[in-house]
Amino acid sequence: MPAVERAGAADKHALGSWLEEISATPLGEKSERAIWLQIYDRMRASVEDGQIGFGAQLPGEHQIADAFGVNRITLRRALARLQDEGYLVARKGVGIFVRPRPTRYTVASDQGFLASVDGAVADYSVRTLGIQREAATVMTADKLSISIGSEVIRLDRVRVWLNQPIYRTVKYFAAARFPQFEPAYAESQSVAAVFRAHGVAHFERVETRVSGGFATASDAEALDLTPKTPVLRTAASNVDPDGRPIEYSLGTWPLTTVELVFERP
Amino acid sequence: MPAVERAGAADKHALGSWLEEISATPLGEKSERAIWLQIYDRMRASVEDGQIGFGAQLPGEHQIADAFGVNRITLRRALARLQDEGYLVARKGVGIFVRPRPTRYTVASDQGFLASVDGAVADYSVRTLGIQREAATVMTADKLSISIGSEVIRLDRVRVWLNQPIYRTVKYFAAARFPQFEPAYAESQSVAAVFRAHGVAHFERVETRVSGGFATASDAEALDLTPKTPVLRTAASNVDPDGRPIEYSLGTWPLTTVELVFERP
DNA sequence: CAGTGGTCTAGACCACATG
DNA sequence: ATGTGGTCTAGACCACTGG
Question: What is the rounded distance in angstroms from the CA atom of residue B69 to the CA atom of residue B169?
């Protein structure tokens, strides 16, 4: 299911003219700039200028390739790059869609999410993808200071901005520490509320690690991205006032749509 | 010029057998895993196991494709991914080389570089790519709290580990603040020493921003990467004890070879 | 079922670096 | 002059999704 409803039939007509417009001017010599890069330039500008709306479905690849007078493979290189940058999503068997993305998105990683966000708080929400109990792996056991195999709660969520997924987090908690996790979370959809319900009034982020990688299939599904697209990954640990770890959180962000800010307090 | 001298003629023979080995077992059904991914798996494992040494030149693309019995384009998808991950570098007109890369590389971004590094300090060094004076742009003027167009010093460097570039930084300083920058830097190759020579004994990092992008041509040259490969970018500001900005630093890191650590002090 | 994107082949020409 | 990687074409079949 698309994060944003796809454009209706009325927009389909508009897309025909969009394709005509964008492919009207002949492409330049390939010696100056590779053909696929020229197509990339035009399509990117077209998306950024809003000539084609968020959520709209593009014409088929064959059709676009024909309009530009290039081979489909050549066109696909341009599309691949636009997908890497989060402008487009390809859904196999369905089509290619314009992916809503902020031109730039800034979040201070050592604060709570809503406190650090630019713009209206009302535009943001959270979508819970899953919550389940499982056995602690070597990594989660280490990060939560519990024994391997003991029960952990795994919470899979996506932050949403204007109906568009911004980033995904998979959070781990020691089940023994939060026996009422599920009901408390169901009420509020808030981890901080679950903490409060268990007597943890404050918590603090002690460490954040940032690395890069490529979107897994589940990343792609959660973030409305094409699989294997490059992403930013974060790993963060939160501790309670006594310094005991209470949360280990893994984040995945589309590579080029976010800027993480770390400030010295 | 390669960062690591390429393997000599003796290794060329070894590479012939490397190719025979890696392509000996027939590829599986493409329905199970895409052919290019199967080739990617094998080549990556081969590089990680050290079956092919750092700096060695691979056989030509046509030759590798023939050995696997696949089309060159199919092979190139595997190579592209390996380049994205920093395992290989392609040099147009020359060949493809195994790129030395640490399996994982951890650096605490709010400390000095050498203080934060894993392993022997002696293995690390810095290579200065350029140092020049230019007019402050809107961005650098803002970050250094100086007026647009006033003189700034631009220092372009690469951090090197075991002869292999790890990351690139482009640093900006207000020229008025450091009149003796070039001679002081020439002596020590150290920015901290330049600061000390101008009476700045201590400085502090106040902010680091992390984002993602793709290697520019100069990034690729400095880091020994294939152009357009995904990278991590950092932007950091350092201030003197009075809180005045003295350095603005832009870093570029191969996407998957580094982990940045931000700790709460 | 028809249409989509994903993969693969078999060629070809080019710009580039090196000997 | 030769060999390299970079680009592009013209086909083809597949798996998947939706009506």
Answer: 42
Q: What chain B residue is nearest to A104 in terms of C-alpha separation? A: B211
**Main-chain phi, psi angles of B260, to 5 degrees:** -90, 135
- Is the pTM higher than 0.90? The answer reads no
With CB atoms and an 8 Å threshold, state whether B264 touches A259: no
CA–CA gap between residue A102 and residue A155 (Å, rounded): 26
| Backbone conformation region of residue A29, classed left if phi is above 0, alpha if psi is from -120 to 50, else beta | beta
Interchain contact, B232 vs A230, CB within 8 Å: no
Share of chain B residues as helix, strand and coil, in percent rounded to the nearest 5? 35, 30, 35
Is any atom of strand D within 7 angstroms of residue B32's beta carbon?
no
Instruction: Report mean pLDDT in 10-residue bins for chain A, 265 residues.
Output: 38 67 79 86 90 88 90 92 92 90 74 64 82 95 95 94 86 96 93 93 89 90 89 93 94 91 78
> Which residues, other chains included, contact A243 with Cβ-Cβ below 8 Å and sequence gap of 6+?
none
A&B contacts, CB < 8 Å: 84
- For residues A137 and B54, give the distance between their C-alpha atoms in angstroms, rounded to a whole number: 33
Contact B262 A207 (CB under 8 A): yes
**Per-position b or e across B206-236, b if 16+ CB within 10 A of its CB:** bbbbbbbbbbeeebbebbbbbebbbbbbbbb
At B78 the three-state DSSP class reads helix
- Nearest beta carbon to residue A212 from set B73, B206, B232: B232
Going by their DSSP bridges, the two strands B259-263 and A204-214 should be labelled as antiparallel
Question: A73: Cβ under 7 Å from strand D?
Answer: yes
Does residue A28 sit in helix, strand or coil? Answer: coil
